[in-house]
UniProtKB/TrEMBL annotation:
Domain of life: Bacteria
Source species of the chain: Kaistella antarctica
Entry GO CC: extracellular space
The keyword Lyase appears for this protein: no
Cleaved signal peptide residues: 1-25
Protein name: Immunogenic protein MPT70
Keyword terms: Signal
Ranges that cross the membrane: none
Annotated FAS1 domain residues: 46-190
Keyword Signal: yes
Length: 192
């Protein structure tokens, strides 16, 4: 598997909200699919991450970052990918000016590094994470497309992920299934 292509695809996938083409699926088929609401919009499992993400009002900052990184086309690929998608409120927690600096053309490599840190190859459900956490004694480590690891853990029945800088994000919406992977919405931006 070519991880440089996956890295680019994963970043684009993570940030591609808003830059997708419309699905050709008939409306009556979409109405019968099991959907999850994210950012005020239904996410259809037969659409890819990009196609669904374009409608989420909670991920407009992520969309802008995907566009700045030039990753939209890549994230429409087959995958599968597991994306930990920070909300606008998560980006708002960063120090003032951080997002504006990251989307500048001269910082594209840094932006790509951060975005691919939010993507794990494969399709990993919330139940998978819970089972692996329990099996591994309370924590589970997963390697990201960026190359570093994320640590997953639970408090009660809530899932959390901790980054390399020891910041933790709660998974606020799990298992937003897509045709090319799964999205888990998180409340904090992860940093490698």
């Amino acid at each position: 598997m070519n991880y440089s292509k996956i890295t680019t695809a994963a970043l684009a996938l993570t940030l591609a909200f808003g830059f997708a083409t419309q699905s050709c699926a008939p409306m009556n088929n979409m109405a019968q699919e099991k959907t999850v609401m994210v950012g005020g919009a239904a996410m259809y499992p037969t659409k890819n991450i990009v196609e669904n993400a374009m409608n989420s009002k909670d991920h407009t900052t992520l969309v802008a970052a995907v566009k700045a990184a030039g990753l939209v086309e890549t994230l429409q690929s087959k995958g599968p990918f597991t994306v930990f998608a920070p909300t606008n409120a998560a980006f708002d927690k960063l120090p003032a000016g951080t997002v504006g600096t990251l989307v500048m053309p001269e910082n594209k490599a840094m932006l790509t590094n951060i975005l691919t840190y939010h993507v794990v190859p494969g399709r990993i459900s919330g139940m998978d994470l819970m089972n692996w956490i329990k099996k591994d004694g309370g924590k589970y480590m997963a390697k990201t497309v960026q190359g570093e690891e994320l640590t997953f853990w639970m408090k009660g029945q809530k899932l959390y992920v901790t980054d390399a800088k020891n910041n933790s994000a709660q998974i606020t919406i799990a298992d937003v299934n897509q045709s090319n992977g799964v999205i888990h919405v998180i409340d904090t931006v992860l940093m490698p």
